[in-house]
Fold this sequence. Notes:
Layout: H1 2-16, H2 20-34, E1 38-39, E2 42-43, H3 44-62, H4 66-80, H5 84-98, H6 102-119, H7 123-137, H8 141-157, H9 159-168, H10 175-182, H11 186-196, H12 202-211, H13 215-225, H14 229-237, H15 244-259
Antiparallel strand pairs: 1-2
Amino acid sequence: KFQQFRQDILDIAKDTGLGADEIANFGQQLVGAFKDKTIGGLSGMNLVEDQTQAGAKLAQVVGLPVKEITDGLTAASLAFNSTFEEIGDVAISVEQHSGVAAKEIVSFLGDIAPAAQEAGFNLQEFASLAAVAQQRSGRSGSALAEQFGRVIPAISEAKEELLDLASQETALQDPKFLNAVNDSNLKGILEGIAKAYSDLDVRSQQFIVNLLGGRREAAAILSLFANNKTYEDILKGTENSAGMLERRFEKVRETITNTL
């Protein structure tokens, strides 16, 4: 199997125009992370080989060094149970529909991965959210991920306070919101808060602002969830994202071949 893997590394290096050493180091790290895993119907060394190839292509397509995206891609792949290829497909689709660079989306997904599962968003939803947040705030993927990373546990811990708030505020008495709070469903909680926010009294609004980490942070997060057509459109675009990494890579490869 390892003999085969060495050959694969040489093939991938040739295919992507990246150095064999760089691919070999990348592959070694992925062996550690994925040899006992099954993702997207692939397991063991088949998965490792597939991830190595897709990761190398993605690095070329988004213009980042392989070693810079290894940790983030690995974290995102494990958190969202998605292959590197699927992550690449979604990031490129989101770039096409939003104008936000795929590499920012990839870095956001890598940074948000540890908190992602708890939040209840899937890969496509988080990638689309990242794009809208960035369009509106102009902040980098990693800055946004850091903010989400703080907000997610804060909301999970505020269950009692949120139920208490809902008992005083008619705008929050929507059964969907109350169920979301009881189930710690972050997505439902944020949607409910965003919908009701302008109808809340000043004291309740202040509580929400503090919960979300301050005025600027609250504005950025709430604008994402308030009847957001842009988000819906970007998300819809990801339904047809399969094969996008491969197509974009072919274009890049033509450029590489022509330059050589």
